[in-house]
Amino acid sequence: MANALLPHGITLAYDDLGAATAPPVVLVHGHPFDRTMWAPQLADLATDFRVIAADLRGYGGSTVVPGTTELSVFARDIEALLDHLGIERFILGGLSMGGQIVMECARLFGERIGGLVLADTFPAAETEAGKEWRRELAGRLVREGMRGYADEVLYKMVAPHADAEVAAHVHRMMTATDPEGAAAALRGRAERPDYRELLTRVTVPALVVVGAQDTYTPVADAEAMHAALRDSTLCVIEGAAHLPNLERPEEFNKALRGFLSAVL
Fold first, then answer.
1. Which CATH topology does 2-263 take?
2. Does residue 12 contact residue 62 with C-beta atoms inside 8 Å?
3. Which keywords describe this protein according to UniProt (predicted)?
């Protein structure tokens, strides 16, 4: 693990594995997790690629900033980290909120991205009911902490039959997240833009992945993104819910490696 102090005063904790000269792949975690959700991918890909996974601000070992963190702020943090590392062009992937941050990165500095990986995510703006729910949840997390929420959603994040060690890892990530950081992300995500039109203008190759049992971002959402993108591959991973990269890492890594080998 390393830490980068970015020009705007935020410190991001990150892993940077593989040869510095290898093709760079950047992975963005979801909410309310941290960079360790990508552990199976870092271990697998680092033999052939340079793999970077950071804790977003508010999560893991990175700076916590209370209030509201919009997706554009997360995206600019990633851009600043890659500038810090001297990486100009890269493949960018994210899961759930991380996938929405990837779409925001494509909006802000898409010319630097050579390919997209969109896992268990969706591009639509939040509904009014969804905005209210996210704001209420943000307040609850600050008042009560993360454990109750983590207990409630664990077996929606992973399938009920998930490996016990995987479920324990997911629960640990959620309970270790700073409530202020999680709340700031929820408030910002409530105000996210609609990325559906953006996807129709993406010209680089994309991989769309989804767990077959994902109820947060169902297969239909992945199919719609696949249809909107000009050059995309769709991979539905059986036996997985919202975190197929952890629940079914072999299948996820096979799809990811196949995509990267074709693009890089």
1. Rossmann fold (3.40.50)
2. yes
3. Hydrolase
